[in-house]
Amino acid sequence: MTDLSIERVSTGPVSGSTPGDYIELLKPRVMSLVVFTGLAGIVLAPGHIHPVLAAVAVLCIAVGAGASGAINMWYDRDIDAVMSRTVRRPIPSGRVEPENALAFGVILAAASVVVMGLAVNWAASALLAMTIGFYVFIYTMWLKRRTPQNIVIGGAAGAFPPMIGWAAVTGGVELPSILLFLLIFLWTPPHFWALALFRNGDYTRAGVPMMPVVAGPDATKRQMLAYTLVLLPVAVAPYFLGIGGLAYLIGSSLLGAFFVLCAVRVLRATDDKPAKQMFGFSILYLFLLFALLMGEHLVSGILTTGGGA
Predict the structure, then answer these.
(1) How far apart are CA 216 and CA 213, in angstroms?
(2) pLDDT tens digit string along 215-230?
C-alpha cells in the first residue's frame, strides 16, 4: 500500500496575529453555508421558537462550525503548507501559532455546545457536539489522510446543521430533517470532487488520497455523475413530505437536471473548465434549494396569517 503520509512542516515565525487572522481560522465561507442550512432547519421545523432563541441557535451553529474549522487548520497545518490553495492560511503563513489556534477552536467548540444546551435544548446541543466531533476526529484526523472515501463519509459533518436547527425547534430528529441531511450528504461528493479534479496537483503533493489522486480522474467523474443522479430524486422528495411546495418541486427538478448536465460535461471534458464550473454551480445549487424551501415556507406563513386576519 502506498504511503500517503507526509512530514509535518514547521511554520514560519509569527509576526503578530490580528483579529482577522482568527476570523480566517473559522473558515467563514464554509461557515456561511453551514449557517444558512442550519437556519433552514429552524424555519422549516414545525412548532415555534422565540426569535431570540432562534438567533442563539444559529449563532451556536456558526461558532461550532468555525471551531471545527480552526481545529482542522491546526491539525492540517503540515499539508496546508504545501498546497497552493491553503498555503496562505494563518498557521502555515506564520500569522498564528498552532497551539493558539487549537485553544481557540476548543474553547469555541465547548462554548457553542454548552450555550446551545442551556439556552435552547440539549437535543440540539448533542447534535452540535456530535457534528463537531465527527468533523474533527472522524473526518480530519482519521479519514482525510487514509481513504478516498474521506469526503463521502466525512461529508456527514456538513450535513448535520439542518438537523440541529430542526432539533432546536422540536427537541428531536424527524424524517424531514433526515431528508435534509441526506440532501447535503449526497451533494457533498460531487461538490468536493469537482474541486479535487482541478486541484489534483495540490492533493497529490500533500499526499491526501482524494478520489482523483487514488482512482484517477475518469473514475472520479463517473462517480460524480452517479451521485448527481441519486441526488435528483432525493432533492425533490421534500415536496412529497410536505416541506416543499409546487415552486420547490419545479425549481429543484430544473436545478437537479442542470447539476446532472454539469456532471455529464465533466465526464466528457478533456480540460478542467467544466469541473471548475460544476464546483461553482454546486454551491449555488445547494443555496437555491434551501432558499426555495425557506421562501415558500415564509410566504405560506404570511398568507396564512393574512387569511386568518
Answers:
(1) 6
(2) 999 999 999 999 999 9
Q: Report yes or no: 71 and 109 within 8 Å, Cβ to Cβ.
A: yes
- C-alpha span between 76 and 28 (Å, rounded): 17
CB-based contact 205:197 (threshold 8 Å): no
Helix residue spans in 45-121 (DSSP H): 51-75, 77-80, 98-115
| Side chain identity at residue 24, one-letter code | E
Across 63-87, average pLDDT: 95
Tell me the whole-structure pTM to 2 decimals.
0.91
DSSP assignment string, 115-138: HIIIII-HHHHHHHHHHHHIIIII
- Round to whole Å and give the CA distance between 56 and 193: 34
Sign of CA dihedral 43, 232, 260, 253: negative
Listed residue (179, 187, 309) closest to 260, CA to CA = 187
Angle at which helices 217-240 and 246-268 cross, to 10°: 170
Band of residue 307 on the pLDDT scale cut at 50, 70, 90: low
Phi, psi of 84 (to 5 degrees): -60, -30
pLDDT band at 199 (very low <50, low <70, confident <90, very high): very high
Pair 250, 289: CB distance under 8 Å: no
What is the average pLDDT value for the chain, to the nearest integer?
A: 92
